[in-house]
Amino acid sequence: MNKIIRVGCVGLSGRGMSNMGELLSVAGVVVPAVCDLYEDRAQAGARLVEEKTGVTSTVYLDHKEMLAKEKLDAVLCCTTWITHGRIAVDSMRAGCHVALEVGGAASVEECWQMVRASEETGKFCMLLENCCYDRKEMALFRMVREGVFGELVHCEGGYRHDLRDEIAYGKENRHGRLPNFMHRNGEVYPTHQLGPIAKLLRVNRGNRFLTLTSMASKARGLNEFILREKGPEYYLANQQFAQGDIVTTTIKCAGGETITLVHDCSLPRPYSRNYALAGTKACYREAPFNDAIYIDNMSPHHEWESFDKYLEQYEHPLWKAYHDRDQHAGGHGGMDYLVLCAFADAVRRGEQPPIDVYDTAAWMVVTCLSEESVAMGGMPVSIPDFTNGMWIERAPAYDGPYCLEEMPG
User: Fold this and answer.
1) Residue (of 292, 254, 295, 255) closest to 149 by Cα position
2) pTM higher than 0.85 for the full model?
3) Closest CA to 224 of 269, 268, 184
4) How many degrees, rounded to 5, is the angle at CA 323 between CA 287 and CA 143?
């Protein structure tokens, strides 16, 4: 199928520009319109489109004007976290499919609005959770589906990333993380490892999230960083940040599994997604230097093995095809490119994507619910069923190279 896909891109900061650049590398995609509240960013987006494709994009400062004037098949939204939902709803109601950059929801109602808009318009809303398409995550997915782990019992993940400079210099860089850390306290960035875990546990297709509890530590890391780097006269030197340095969230699933997430972005540390799986036949843990696995009756007794040989042995077909085609490396090692290929494929097919609006809502809602739990001292909070009971018996999932439910046939 060679259908041309017309995508309008909204939100052109660093992440927006990176995603749009990747999207322009996907065959058949054109970007006739770009939009950002800041004119310099919108103009920079238009220049990037012209440099990569020779197409002149129309520049907008208001996404509603863009939706009213342009004939688009889809919208790529990479704006600040608290604007994702409303732009997604506006776009679907204007007749466009939506690709949504990751981030948590501000309210449960925001998630319901996205679900209702998608159901009423027939347009999908796909969260661009690139980690679902990471090479390691996909190899582990294959191992789980082929029974290597037996029955999964517990999963862990998180976002442990030293972003003190990005947050502290938010005003200078016009970066949206700063106001969130100033005013919110919870699991504000849950989906990087929750997405792959949810797919492993068949959430929204035979399983669902039931409840969560969250606890937050005190907030000290940003203050110490700001005093050291900017001095006591800087306007944020005495800011009382709401966001705890370490936020721990536990989720219980209908199938009996538990999930632990950790958010850790304001203390010094190397990057980690804290990934761990525990099953009845095997366990895996992302280690500081080498990922490790232990398989019952196969690994040396009570000794971890390097995951490297299993990564090759259980290479997912999508990644094998990606390597065989000798594609450009792409952002984050290639997973950015693959998730955008999955999005473009769904638009071209006119069918639901591998990450649908129910997944999008269920993963994003963890943020606002964790804020509630933290505010109540770690009290359990119920998680809505955005499928309205359909999780028990859903229609068959998309079956193709980008499928995240089963191994491709």
Assistant:
1) 295
2) yes
3) 268
4) 45
Residue 155: both structure tokens together: 């999963």
Give the separation between CA 295 and CA 235, rounded to whole angstroms. 53
The encoded tokens of residue 332 equal 């984050």
- Domains of the chain (ranges, CATH numbers): 5-130 (3.40.50.720), 131-316+357-392 (3.30.360.10)
- Give the separation between CA 36 and CA 21, rounded to whole angstroms: 16
Matching residue, tokens 């995603």? 19
Query: What are the E-state strand segments in 167-319?
Result: 209-216, 247-253, 258-264, 276-279, 282-285, 292-295, 305-306
Alpha carbon 173 to its chain centroid, in Å, reads 22
Residue 235 DSSP one-character state: T
* pLDDT exceeds 90 at position 26: yes
Residue bearing tokens 């090479």 = 135
Residue position matching structure tokens 């505010």? 375
pLDDT digits (tens, 9 = 90+) for 15-24: 999 999 999 9
Q: Report the alpha-carbon distance of residue 24 to residue 98 in Å, rounded.
A: 16
Could you tell me which of 104, 96, 83, 82 has the C-alpha nearest to residue 125?
Answer: 96
